Amino acid sequence: MKVMVLINEASKEKLRGGFYTPKDIADFILKWAINGNKEMDILEPSCGDGVFLQIMKEKNIPYNSISAVEFDETEYQKALSIDLENSFIVNDDFHNYCLTTRDKFDLIIGNPPYIRYQYFSKDQQTLAEQIFRKSGLKYTKLTNAWVSFVVGSSQLLKEKGKIAFVLPAELLQVSYAQQLREFLAHFYNKINIVSFEKLVFPEIQQEVVLLLCEKDGTSSHKIEHLELRNAESLKNLDILKLKNPQKKIDFKTNKWTFYFLEQDEIDFLEKLQESKRVPKLGKYADVEVGITTGSNPFFTVPLATVQFYDLEKYAKPLVGRSVQVPSLIFTEEDWKKNRDIQARTHLLTFPKMSDLNGSLGARDYLEYGIEEGINKGYKCGIRDEWQIIPSLKISDALFIRRNHLYPKLIINDAKAYTTDTMHRVSIKKEVNLYAITASYYNSLSFAFAEISGRSHGGGVLELMPSEVENIFLPYHKSNETLVETIDNMIRTKESIDKILEITNKEILMNNYGFSKEEVDMADRIWKKLSKRRLNRGKNL
After folding, report:
1. How far apart are the first and last CA of the chain?
2. Residue 115: CB partners within 8 Å, gap ≥ 6?
3. pLDDT for 150-165, tens place per residue?
């Protein structure tokens, strides 16, 4: 049975859905997992070239039995050639093996493939869905193969047992892994997460973590998050540090990012969530993605293009990039400055072809678009008329989708359109636009932005609309008086720390009754999370 539908351009490693496990990591996982136990039944659900098996043979690590599954025929033959005693190497897809085997294991280890749902065959999707259903989980089209490997492996453990996997750091924060986090939190009694400042797989820019879980038959559920500089640092890590994780698992949170924090910091955030002392941004505004043009290079153009093709009739003011927004308020003057330096400051909003009438320049430009194949792109191709952009709506404010130093909320005073590089923020009735924008600029909201979003290569923080709406926002009408101060300070390039010294005092202490200790705590949490993200960016 062929289980993967794969793209032609992918490398051999990407076709397998993963890269070989570095020896430092495999060594450490085995050291943590076996820890002197000589009678383990062990499974590796995707053994690749057999690095774990090879280390076990070289170091003569004792065990009761070892089973390994590998779908790729070439990799299977490599694993088979290692010739371990009392080993069972199976050439099969793990999903099928998981659903058909009757064996149970003390330890399951490995580096599962990272393959997206759309590269699965129908058979693969069906098998993965059965594994999910078996654990009462819902299978979605966003699910990656590594998720079903973790769930399936958990099902194959004995009453007491361990799993140890090399997984994408997405585990900690992406929404499609949320139910997996909930499953792991309830299923296991001890969870350790080891992350790295430097990339383990720099060739694919994939940030990974080690997930070390133990089911011990108790009723406690504890977690710990430890960060090391690189994989080599594992050699000096005492595994006793991982024996008893101390942080209580919060079953209400949907992200694991904040387990990097200390217990008192976690407690502070959890109490805020439980007390509902501070509302969320979604109470005051609706957030949606910006305009999807189908081809930003074609539909967003500089003034020179508008003038050359005589497109003034169809050109609307646009802000398309975060660098075009210098401050808290995006003014018409800001827009004109961007326009005059030939930035892409115009959105082309064409009507039906039949309504173009004598617009020869527009017809020429659209003909050029057809020559370039713009009309055949997916988003353009599904429209009744490819050149008509849907959802042309101007919002009250803008939220930058991908941010660096800190995530920005901006008043759209210029009434500019925006593409999907920014989110559109529409203020609800009876809410003051200036007040809500100023209310966002505080350490607590920034901390929750870090927790809600996810970090990417280069230290970039990305938030989707629903995640923006989940940010804690201490709204107060009087905060509108802070807008001019914040705007001027950002324009004169004052540090965000100096801005927060002013805003934290007014927004959190004066208007919400936070103590200085609580404000310091919120600020410390934000700085810790943002510094961690930015430092990781420097090491890529």
Report:
1. 39
2. 4, 17, 144, 145, 146
3. 999 999 999 999 999 9
